[in-house]
Amino acid sequence: MSSIHPTAIVDPNAKVADSVEIGPFCVIGADVALSAGVKLHSHVVVEGRTEIGEKTEVFPFTSLGHRPQDLKYKGEESRLVIGSNCVIREHVTMNPGTEAGGLLTSVGDRCLIMVATHVAHDCRIGNDVILVNNVTLAGHVTIGDHVIMAGLSGAHQFVRIGDHAFVGGMTGLENDLIPYGMAIGNRAHLAGLNLVGLKRRGFSREQIHALRNAFKSLFSGDGNLKDRLTSVEADYAGDATVMKIVEFIREGGDRAICTPRQGHDG
After folding, report:
1. What is the distance between the alpha carbons of residues 101 and 36, in angstroms, rounded to a whole number?
2. So what's the pLDDT on residue 163?
3. DSSP-assigned beta bridge partners for residue 159
4. Is the confidence at residue 265, as pLDDT, over 80?
5. Is 121 among the residues known to form the active site?
């Protein structure tokens, strides 16, 4: 059986699974779906077409699913989908998608979203992501798996952040960050590879060595980035780890690639 505090307001049309806990003064809208084991502490508001996955825990004064902060939004039926086993801390805000972004904002599994973080409309966040206090994501930001964004950092709209990347504290990221990359500064520059994160996640010495060599070839070699990318692609064709960077750059997006400062070889 679910546990719903008597002061909570839960619309009778909301889908509330077994073993859900809804604390004091929470407000749950008609189109909300809460999966088994979800726990909402006090003063949580969940509105719109919002789905929260199993065993996700949401702390007080969080607002999930209210209309996007986008003047182009006209009330279209968009969604916010949050995965399983996430922890969403106090004062977090997340908005659903818009027609221009596929009508969906999504957060993967096992994410830690810390105090006062904002996830704007049409963002796509992967699995095992950590967004530290006061991170702000503009609309249409895409974040891969195992990414960490440190406190007070922000990402410009349409920015892509690759798997296993790290964004330093108080960083303003306005360009795409390659997988395994580390960005710092305002405006951000590519400061090398996220070596600490790679070691913590069990990447082998050989994988890290290949990534470092490929990084230097991409960002410190002769010729333009397009030529260097072709060279790295040929040299590391059988290395899936390096090829993730190559594919990310080849895929492209609306933003340029974040690059090192002149003279910085990572």
Report:
1. 29
2. 98
3. none
4. no
5. yes
Q: Which of 43, 118, 121, 156 is catalytic?
A: 121
Q: How far apart are CA 182 and CA 127, in angstroms?
A: 18
Q: Which residues are 176's β-sheet partners?
A: 257
Q: Which CATH code fits 199-251?
A: 1.20.1180
Domain boundaries, the chain: 3-140, 199-251
Q: Is 122 a catalytic residue?
A: yes
Identify the architecture of domain 3-140 in CATH: 3 Solenoid (2.160)
Please pick, among 101, 139, 154, 181, the residue that the annotation labels catalytic: 139
d(CA 212, CA 79): 40
Confidence of residue 121 (pLDDT cuts 50, 70, 90): very high
Q: Residue 127: what residue type?
A: N
Give the C-alpha separation, 120 to 139, whole Å.
5
Marked catalytic residue, from 31, 109, 122, 145: 122
Cut 0.90: pTM above it:
yes
